[in-house]
Structure formats: structure tokens, C-alpha cells
Amino acid sequence: METRKSLSNPSEVDLLSALRSDPILAGQITCATSLPAVHACLGRPSAPMHPRLKSKLEQIGVDSLFEHQALAYDAVCSGEDVAVVTGTNSGKTLCYNLPVLQRCLTEPMARALYLYPTKALAQDQLSKFLELVPDTDVRAGVYDGDTPKSQRSAIRQLSHVVLSNPDMLHVGILPSHENWSRFLKSLRVIVIDEMHVYRGVFGSHVGNVIRRLLRICEWRNCRPQIVACSATIGNPKDLFQKLTGRTCRLITEDGSPKGKRTFVFWNPPRLEDQTRQSSNIVSSEILATLCEAGLRSLAFCRARVTTELLLRYTRERLEKGGKVAPERVESYRAGYTVKERRKIEKALFKGDLLAIATTNAMELGVDIGGLDAVVMNGYPGSISSFWQQSGRAGRGTREGLAIMVAHDDPLEQFLVCEPHRLLEGSNETVALNPDNRQVLAQQLKCAAFERPIAPSELERFGPNALQVAEGMDRSGELPFRAGLFIYPEYKSPASNVSIRSSGGTQVTLIANGEELGTMEHWRAMQSAHEGAVYLHRGVSYVVERLDLANGQAFVSSRDLPYYTQALVQSTLDPQVDIEPRSWGRHDSRLEGLKVTDLVIGYKQIALEGMRMMTVQPLDMPPVSYETLGIRLDLPALEDDEDLQPIAALHGLEHALMAVAPLMAGCDRGDLGSAWYSAFPGSAKPTLFVFDRTPGGVGLAEALFDQLGPWAMAALQVLTGCPCNEGCPSCLLSARCEANNELLDKKGAVKLLRELAGRRR
Questions:
Q1: Which of 34, 70, 217, 658 could be disulfide-bonded to 410 (CB atoms 3.0-4.6 Å)?
Q2: pTM of the model as a whole
């Protein structure tokens, strides 16, 4: 390995120069641009502030408020439901902490519930809240799954402010709401922080959990106001309404200062076979360079496996360089045990670590001190996440560096060549569907356990709730007796309802009799089958046996030169037509679908060079669910010099799926697709793109509303690439179950022009 230059307190320019001159990284920067610093815009609240609170602010050096903080303070103090939507590190915490403290100081019996999406964020925010508390008259505590049982009663009875998460509210607080009677009677404010996180199945569940909470509060003659905070998104009012069932006062005036931000777009070099070097390897080189320069950095990855690969590669390169101890780089993601997460968090907060390779678990506002740089190993999945992740570097008025390393896939090659789509693009909407019938069925059982449900109460749970409840009455799951829907068992169903997935149990990974981590049932089908490689904090484990019945996967440590990737095949059965619509010269429709997924095998991919080694078959049970999708029926396609029918249809699928996540504002894994040269029943060439969440969360509808722009973006991807036959940068897909065989780029371009309404 070639040696790198080590920098001492480098400036931003020096660092970019060093990265450009690195013999391994040279020539890979496609674009570097900066956003100038922004000065603060201050505001003065008109609502009164308690003298002790005002004195405390002066004591900690807060002598003025930003405009959005002052507006939020006045709105909350006046009793309004409020959503504050401003940029990363804009001081949103004060928007709710100040009015809540004002309420607690003027009304000693008042209580507030703060909900955060992660335990780490709740712990971090507790320390920030306590810094603001003027004296011991206001008490606060964290109540989550990690809270010792010996402390729980005192927190329930004595705390003015309880910091928790939707999971604990769902499974711990609401099922035993009698124990929380005193708290709930006096609940004045509910805070929902990081509102933009509540998307998809998770958001759909949380929307119903909030409704359950408000229902219990109403029964106790209490109507708490709701304050939500969010990063910048495209539909804040709509999201607030779907999460809470209420309307809100929206505050978007961001008065916080911003330091200079430099954005670098990085494209790994092409190799001899015309594929690009692995973004994992390039990201590890960049992260190692940042570490050797003494810069504190975060490296975001799209998936758990790439997080582990990045940690492994970075440590190997630091060990060869000899300038920084490899142990100063760690990984952080879901699936680790509580003990592991706390150990990593402690080392991070203390400054013992120089860098963290992480999933979006660190995208949220946990204060980990001054970060100098962020490396995004691939497009984060949405413009909102791009700004959220890049905003972690140079917080406040510090200068920051954000580097996005493109993967060798069509969407990311498209974005790295047109970075203005990220830097100037509109923030996406957050898709969720609290009316999802599968989610509702589970949540109504939980609500009925907490208190039998009158039909008149079902309106708060959405238009589908009554029909779902009547169906559950017929099945015996929710009998209707004496005018109420009653849960027929004595044990709460909440413990069997995962609000972070559409169903199924957790699978525990066990190594030498010890718990190594956990994963969802559906993820285990794809990542914990026999022969799968599970990467954990730089160590490779191979799955020896998967016991789905008991929710266990048994693994053993092995030093393997590869990792694995599942191959999933989907078959579709249309159930009901919802809406027809013209798509260019062709007809399409939104349909209800029954999807059956089958894991048919897995690839072994070399750690060095990322080449595919072998494909191994698997015999796994199928998983079926109902969802929404888009169906495109094409007329019979005939062979000509510009179009090979089957290969053109297959190419059309790849092109549309390449840009679909950008159009729908979601992760690649949230959408599925399938194509048929002659679909049964119609005998026509047919293409489906569908929402992978059972019941759907609005992704198919979002794509259906922009069919023309969707086809146009896919056309730009294909025509913007100079290759003739299709390559990983425009047409090939690592997820293709047909191993990228039978693809016709020219024919796909012709079909896309028809869909986009273009003649040539």
C-alpha cells in the first residue's frame, strides 16, 4: 500500500488538496462546491418568561433566541399544536424545552412526554434538558427499555418530563396506563422529535400509537398539545396530520447561523472490466485519510453489511499506515446488543474514537461533539437524508466537509454527474399510511386491550378502522359485545406487535451460546439463511442453522474471504383495479396486488475486488403479502433492429427501478418489480413496480402521480451514459435475479421515449 501524507490541523483547502494528491484517490473528484456561511437571524418572544428560566439562559450564555425559536416559544405558550421544520443543528431543542420549562415552573403539576426515535437520542437530550433546568423544582428522567426497574416507579411518579420512545410508549406505557394515571391526567405537552424519521411501516404504526395515547388522555379529561420537530421535508403539515390526527401551526423560518459547507462528489475509477472500483474500498481510503489528518468523521452506509465492510477495510488500511490505531475507528448500527451500543456511544462521546462507520442510526441529532467531515458511502436514499447526513459535519458556525462516494449503479452515476439535483432539488415528502389495514388490525387490538373501543371512537383511527374492526369481530379477534369492541385476552398484544416492521418476530443470532445481535424475521430470511455470512464489528460469522420456528440463528466465527447477498424472486397476482391512467402512448393502472417473495439463492462476493465468486441455491419458504403497485401493459412487441422485445422490456424494468427511489423518496429496498413477456390472463408484455410494504405506504401512489417525469429521468440515465450495450453505470443491476442477462439498452430507450411522450 502506498503511503499517504499526514496533515497537521489542515484547512479545508489543504484537505481537499491532500485527497486529490493521494496516489490511490487521485482523479476521482467529479465536483467540489461550497455553500457560504449564513449569519444568524434573531427574534424576541412576546410571551412572558419565568425569571428563573430567563436567569438560567443568561447563566449558560444564551442571551438571545433565533427567529424560529422565538416564534415556537410564543406558539407553544399560546397552546397551539406546532411543527418546527428547520435545518440540521438549528437549535430545535430549545423550541420545545423553553416553553415546557415555562409551563412546569408556572404550573408545578404539569407534565410533558418527549418521544425520540432512538434510546441514544433520548439519553443525549436528557443532558441538554438538565442544563436548562433552573433548579431542582423540575425533574426529568429517561423511561425506556434500558431503564432499571428499580428507577421506573420514581420516574413515573415524580418526573415532570419523561423522555422515551414510541416503542416504550407502545409496549410499556400504554398497556399499563393505570400505573401512569397521575402523569397522564396532568400531561400538557407531547413532543415528537425527529418527525421525519417516522416513515413507512414504522411511521404508520407510530401514527396509531399516538392516537392510542391521545385516546387514553381524552378518557382522563386531558388534551395535551403536540410539538413536533423535523428536518426539512416536503410535506410537514401532512406528516403531522398523519402522525397525530391534528392540524398544526408550521414554523419554517430558520434563524440559525451556518458555517461554510463544502460538498465533494466522488466517483470511483473504472477498472479493466469497465466496472468501477468498490465504493466501500474508496470510502475506506477517504476515511483513513481523514483519520490520519486528525479529523473526526462519520461515514454513513446504506446497509448493515456495507457498514461492517467499511470498518474492516478502514482498520486494515490504518494498520498498514501505522499512524492511527485501528481501534480508534468503530461501527454503529441496529442489531448490536445494548451493552455494545452503550460502550461505543461512551467512547464516541468521550472523544476516544476518531471515526464511526454507521448506518442512518447516527443520522439523527445526537450531539457527538465537533465533527469535521462526513463521508456518505452512496446516495443516502433521499434529498432530505443527504442534507441531514451532510449537516452532521461542521455543526454550528464550524466549517464542514461532506463527501458523497457514488456506487456503480445507474441512480448514483446519474446523481454524481448532475449533483445540482441534490444541491438544488426539493425535499421529498415522507410516505406513511396509518390507515394500512395490516397495521390497523394490530393497533386496534392493542387499543382495545387498553380500553374497550366504542364504534364512535374508531373515526380517530381513520376511514378503514370500522371495517377492519368488524372483520376482526367476525374472526373472533375483537368481539363486539355490549356496544364495544373488546380484546378477549388478559395479556397485552403489544409485546407481539413490532412497530418497526410489518409483522413477524425477531430472530436472535447466537454465537457460542451468547447473543450476538438481532434482526427482523424478513431480514433473517434474506441474511441469516444457512451459509449466509454475517459481519459484526469487523468479524465474519457464517450461519450454520436458521430456526425460524424458535426465532434463532446459530452462527460461528470464521475468517472468510467473501460476504453474501440474497437473490429474491417475486411473483404477482393482481387482486383489484384501482385507477387507470395513460402513460405516454400506453395504458397503466394502479392495482392491488398479492406478492409472493421467494429467496431462491445467494451470491458469494469477494471481499477483495468485490467480484462475484459463486451463486448458491436455497430452498426457503415463500412469504406472501398484499400491497399496491403500478401495472404497465404494452402491446405485443415485434423484433426489429431497434428493439428485441423481451430484452427491451427487461431493460425498461432496470431503467425505471434505477430512478424510482429518487422519484418516490424512499430506499431501494422499499420497492419491488417484476416483468412478464406474456402475463397470464392478458398475454401481453407487462411490467409491475410495487410497494414492498404489506398494505402499501404510499410509494406506488407517489410514482403513479409522476409517470411522465419518472420515465424522463430513466431516459436521461440511459442516454447520458456513453456505453452502447448497457453497463453498471446505466442499465446493469446488482439486484437482478437474472444476472443481468438479456438486456437491450437501445430497445429500453425506445420504450422510455414512448412513455415520456417523446418521438426521438
A1: 658
A2: 0.81
Nearest CA to 687 among 642, 754, 622?
Answer: 754
Q: What CATH fold (topology level) applies to the domain 12-35+259-423?
A: Rossmann fold (3.40.50)
The length of the chain in residues reads: 760
For residues 348 and 354, give the distance between their C-alpha atoms in angstroms, rounded to a whole number: 8
8 Å CB contact between 144 and 122: yes
> How far apart (Å, rounded) are the C-alpha atoms in residues 89 and 395?
6
Contact (Cβ atoms closer than 8 angstroms) between residue 255 and residue 69: yes
Highest mean pLDDT among 15-29, 52-66, 410-424, 529-543: 52-66
Give pLDDT tens digits for 622-677.
988 889 999 999 987 776 666 688 899 999 999 999 999 888 877 777 899 999 98
Average pLDDT, the chain: 88
Please tell me the distance from the alpha carbon of residue 386 to that of residue 389, in angstroms, as a whole number: 5
Residue 248 has which C-alpha cell? 398544526
Q: How far is CA 90 from the centre of its chain?
A: 21
Beta bridge partners of 112: 161, 189
At 6 the pLDDT is 35
Compute the distance between CA of residue 651 and CA of residue 62 in angstroms, rounded to an integer. Answer: 58
Specify the higher pLDDT residue, 15 or 552.
552
The Cβ-side half-sphere exposure at 424, using a 13 Å CA radius, reads 5
Domain spans in the chain, listed from the N-terminal domain onward: 12-35+259-423, 42-251, 437-496, 506-560, 567-755
> For the segment 724-735, what is each residue's pLDDT rounded down to a tens digit?
888 888 888 877
For the domain covering 437-496, report its CATH number.
1.10.10
Give the DSSP letter of residue 570.
Answer: E
Assigned CATH topology for domain 42-251: Rossmann fold (3.40.50)
Whether the domain at 12-35+259-423 and the domain at 42-251 fall into the same CATH topology: yes
The 10 Å CB-count burial string (b at 16+, else e) for 79-107 is ebbbbbbbbbbbbbbbbbbbbbbbbbbee
Predicted confidence band of residue 8 (pLDDT cuts 50, 70, 90) = very low
In terms of DSSP bridges, do strands 514-520 and 506-511 run parallel, antiparallel, or are they unpaired? antiparallel
Cell of 736: 437482478
| All three cell numbers of 602 | 445467494
- Look at phi and psi of residue 381 and say left if phi exceeds 0, alpha if psi is from -120 to 50, else beta: left
